[in-house]
Request: fold
Amino acid sequence: MAEEETHVEEGPLSVLKWDQGLFEQITRGFRFPPEWDAQYPRQGQTAADAPTGYITLFEDFFLQGNFRLPATKFMAHILHYYGFHISQMSPAGMVRVRHFEFLCRSHGIEPTVEKFRVFY
Reply:
């Protein structure tokens, strides 16, 4: 008996393909407080389908980009300076910002947008 293919119609953004177990691992492992009401997307949702008042954050932010919530003031300053939303950051960009911040802090230097721009 041949397996039936399941076809999911996709729009301009691909359908999210991670599972609820990983979502729960991230929310528990990174200690998301209950008042944040983090929600696992419904089947067939894309990153653009976040409910009003919510944002989409990708697992790669946390697992590969070393992103943590709440975000630091430095991260907020970077986002404000460049005029983009956290959901527009790629994991590689997240690594770059977080690495710079870690290096500054490990040397007792306050990270700033101006210092970041010297290197990037």
